[in-house]
Amino acid sequence: MNLVFGPVPSRRLGRSLGVNNIPDKTCTYACVYCQIGSTLKMYAQRREFYAPEEIYQSVKSRVKGANIDYITFVPDGESTLDINLGKAAKMLKYLGKVAIITNSSLIYREDVRADLLNFDYVSLKLDAITPTIWKKVNRPYKELDLDKIREGMLEFRREFKGTLVTETMLIGEIDYGDELEKLAEFIAELKPDASYIAVPTRPPAEPWVHAPDESTIARAHALFSKYARAELLIGYEGTEFSTTGNFEQDIMSITAVHPMREDAVLALLYKCDEKREKLEKMIKEGKIIKVEYNGEWYYMRALPSRKNMVRE
Ligand code: SF4
């Protein structure tokens, strides 16, 4: 597995060089909307996956001459399960600004908060306040406790001096009732630098997951805006994916984490001076899969966690 991918265009982070520090798919959650597919290994104990030196060398070989805004931990699972996270972040800071996307589930642990302090930008998942909604949307590991997670987020806010944002994924299958008001109250307490609202835009782990109606999105935006800079993450990030010149290598490493829409894949083929037959061959060989969602085709690495996503 490639430890580094991109840079990819990110709606929040500009040009982001991705670090995939967790093997497919190891997570504390099994979110119904996950774009990496089903959780294959679920636990909440931190452990060692890759040596920080190996991550550092992989990033170093890719940052040279590249136009990068952030080096971002955004893996095939939950980034803070990596027990060497803090050490890797400290090393990578010599190469650029470091960001992390986490589902927040382990932030109640002091060692996880200490590791996160090494980052310049931390994005915390905040999908629910009510345990029943949390269990329906995020399907957490059984030993996790939402109250402790919220306390950990507030504790981290007090210690952290970098950019802290929240990300809330809304789905159409949940009756949010007064949940959006509760989320806004928590945002008021947390005081993030920005509060992002997302909806599923790429093929989800569960085929029945869809975006909520516009009134739910607008209500969340109006409520969150009272207490933070609220932004919608519902636009397309574009087709500006960087290439190493090797199409197969690029598509395999990027789409392990980040499914690509057909127009972006075609743009990458063109940049690498490859023909469409190359793509068809990779599908035939079982290296990548093609999945339709909301009337668009997406291409992604054929990871074991995505076995159930092929619905043709
Ligand atoms: S969306 Fe993130 S937190 Fe949820 S299951 Fe997927 S990798 Fe884990």
Give a topology summary:
Layout: E1 4-10, E2 14-19, E3 26-27, E4 41-42, H1 52-63, E5 70-73, H2 85-92, E6 98-102, H3 110-116, E7 121-125, H4 131-138, H5 146-159, E8 163-169, H6 179-190, E9 194-198, H7 214-225, E10 230-233, H8 247-257, E11 260-261, H9 262-271, H10 276-284, E12 288-293, E13 296-301
Parallel strand pairs: 2-5, 3-4, 5-6, 6-7, 7-8, 8-9, 9-10
Antiparallel strand pairs: 1-2, 11-13, 12-13
The structure holds iron/sulfur cluster.
Overview of the molecule:
This protein is an alpha/beta fold. The protein has a single domain, classed as Alpha-Beta Barrel (TIM Barrel), CATH 3.20.20.70. Helix content is 33%, strand content 20%. It is built from 10 helices and 13 strands. The strands form 3 sheets. It has an 8-stranded mixed β-sheet. Strands 11-13-12 form a 3-stranded antiparallel β-sheet. A two-stranded parallel sheet has the order 3-4. The two termini are 27 Å apart.
Task: Give a brief rundown of this model.
Helix content is 33%, strand content 20%.
User: Rg to the nearest angstrom?
Assistant: 19 Å
**Which compounds are bound in this model?**
iron/sulfur cluster
Question: Approximately what portion of the residues adopt beta-strand conformation?
Answer: 15-25%
What is the CATH architecture term?
Alpha-Beta Barrel
Oligomer: single chain
Instruction: Report the biggest beta sheet as strand number plus sense, adding barrel if it closes.
Output: 8 strands, mixed
- Structural class assignment: alpha/beta
Number of domains: 1
**What overall form do the CA principal axes indicate?**
globular
Cα distance spanning the termini: 27 Å
* CATH topology category name: TIM Barrel
The named CATH superfamily: Aldolase class I
Task: Figure out the total of helices.
Answer: 10
Number of strands: 13
